[in-house]
Amino acid sequence: MRQITLSNGKTVEVKCLSCAITSGLIEPDGGVVLETEYFHAHQDVAYPIKGLIILASKRHIKCFDELTEEEKIDYIKVLSKIREAQRTVLGIKYVYYFYNEDTTHHFHTWMVPRYKWMYEFGRSVESVRPTLLHARNEVNSKENIQEVMDAIASLTKELNK
Ligand SMILES: [Zn+2]
Q: Out of the domains of life, which is the source (predicted)?
């Protein structure tokens, strides 16, 4: 079991954070952006970056080759649907995708939008962590967080129409 402190200060004990979120035990801030039979998408509000979406499987698996045929098809459909919404609603030109199998959570893909300010941290994978930390530590004003919440609402509306 792991102790996880939520953004509202509450502490919960869960085996797997992804299971807790995809099963609805923990409601992510901003809510569910999109949910299908096999996948669940939400913004990680720990990092106030507009359109930063986490797409998690509902099953507790770790690796790509554990996906069933139905899940594989659903995954690529959902991923590209969210990508399209990021473009049409938020004007996001490029996205980095990050997914690691040695996670303490379960199968989930980060969809990290690229904004102009991020290029001061370089390009490609080495810039991802510094970018996220910069957002969390330096770009976390009330206004910015409100913008992120507004972006979540716009994406949710676009993806569920
Ligand atoms: Zn899990």
A: Bacteria
